[in-house]
Amino acid sequence: MLARGPRLLLVVEDSAGQTTEADLTEEGVGLGVPVVRYGSRCRYPGSVCVRACGPHAYRYTYHLDLTDRVGLFGGRVSGAPLDRAREWFSVLHRRRPATRRSIDTLGVLTRRVLGVTTWFGPAPLPVVVDVVYRVDPGEDSVEVEVDAREAVRRGCGEVSLMNESGGHHFTEYRDVTGFRRDDAIGSWHQVTGDWAAMGDPRTGAWFGVRLKRAAVTDSGPTRLNAGREVAGARLAWAGVAVVLPSGVSGCVYRVSYGLGGIGAAA
User: Fold this and answer.
1) What global pTM score does this model have?
2) Which residues lie closer than 8 Å to 11 by C-beta, 6 or more apart?
3) pLDDT of residue 14
């Protein structure tokens, strides 16, 4: 099980003044959760330590000690060739939208016939990434500051900060290029501009990510990627990731949220 960051909750008050909370996260990991590339593989957080560090501020120390694995026949057969094949199909799925339906169909067949399964296993050389969340109650937003200096010292590649909620809830997407809905959002694409937002048309809830301070290096600029995936009970996430290029150890960005529909996001 992956460690999660702060999550979006929908709080509803009825006519009697009673409040109920609905967690909108589903399979998403929450806000500001780091993933680092280490060689040809990724490292994911298996645990997190949370402590207050100021008024409305909290430091999450993520321990990235897991990596994703794939196996056949319920995991009895696994190894580097299968891991590389999975990564190749994952890249193809992200970069070639026209192939997604065929790859999804192939995935269903291989899981059924070959017993393909995926899981998170222990990773060698765990990495620590600190993320500070500063809540601004008056603005309905959270400032997220990332400190990935250890990851850079250890020779890691890109550091991504995942900002995800539930894929069944957040079915709308918006950036400077316009509006998309449902499958048209795609599983992963680079955002044009410095902000993007996801919306829930049923409740009117939305959240948006905007870069504030970001570095540009020889490896390229800090950028945003966005996407949405829903696949039965296995996958249900929608979100925007902040991607730091190799050699960059930090950035600051803001996550805003509210009600009123995705048109209120900017």
Assistant:
1) 0.82
2) 19, 20, 21
3) 74
